[in-house]
Specification:
alpha/beta, TIM Barrel, 7-stranded mixed sheet, binds 8-OXO-2'-deoxyguanosine-5'-triphosphate, binds magnesium ion, 8-oxo-GDP phosphatase activity
Amino acid sequence: MVKRRVHVAAAAIVSEDTTQVLIARRPSNVDQGGLWEFPGGKLAPYETGFEALKRELHEELGVEIQRAQPLIRVNHEYPDKHILLDVWQVHAFAGEPFGREGQAVRWVDKNDLFNYPFPAANLPILRAVILPTECLITAEEEDEEVFFTKLERALVEDKVRLVQLRAKQLDRDAYLARAERALTLCRQHGARLLLNGEPELLDKVDADGIHLTSERLMSLERRPLAQGKWQSASTHNSEQLEQAARIGCDFVTLSPLRTTPTHPDAAPLGWHDFQQLVETAAMPVFALGGMTRFDANHARAVGAQGIASIRDFWK
Ligand SMILES: Nc1nc2c([nH]c(=O)n2[C@H]2C[C@H](O)[C@@H](COP(=O)(O)OP(=O)(O)OP(=O)(O)O)O2)c(=O)[nH]1
Ligand SMILES: [Mg+2]
């Protein structure tokens, strides 16, 4: 059977304070009926994704989009069709959204999204909605006080909300001590903290998740973490991206986009190859390698979640 290919544009409409997102319930008599969704629908012939998005939000919710940005593109195989969900984050709109087709419409806290039943294709979208566009990877820093001064600056001034604690030079005990203190600080600022290392670290420090090296990623046969903890991984090529999908990573970094002083010998991907790899990825992807906050919009435009960086946040 040749499966139908369906191209759908959908919107994650976020509230002004960015804490909430608008979802709608699909009527019980349609495909995926009764489940919650991001409003949108199929592209009409000759429409671009964004044109379809504008038309669908007008038809389904009675709102006009004023400002939107690509969020994520998801390819998913349903038993009867191949679907491409082209999802946009809508930052500003005119009008008061309501269910023009009689469907239930609700603003929900981003952190409650996992409590709503969505179609199977939506899992990567939920992750993309919840994750920020910037990820700080901490630098090697021997001095504890300097480390925490710099981390606090990034949390307060740059408003970083996702931190990966990378400290290869520390032994396990020193790492765990730093992780405990970093977790307290991150919690104070509403930021998530991922530990870089083996999954068992979470038994000692109850952080938000684990970041796996590409080597550890390739050695695993299944997801080592419980759902509810975030699992990310370092990737550099399509093989590693596929493995990340296979073991259920929630998101990944893909590097190096540019040449960097920390990895001078690694061949940079450049935006073109990066974009092609992201297109095949089944989860949010952060661009890594010589990235600054000024690259975040471009990264989003080519399909990434945003950027991950050490140097740009470590001052
Ligand atoms: N809009 C939307 N569709 C989704 C999501 N997740 C998901 O699997 N889908 C699937 C369900 C449908 O098979 C397809 C979208 O079709 P649709 O029923 O919204 O299309 P439409 O608005 O153009 O409706 P119609 O004119 O064909 O009745 O994508 C989602 O989050 N939002
Ligand atoms: Mg629809």
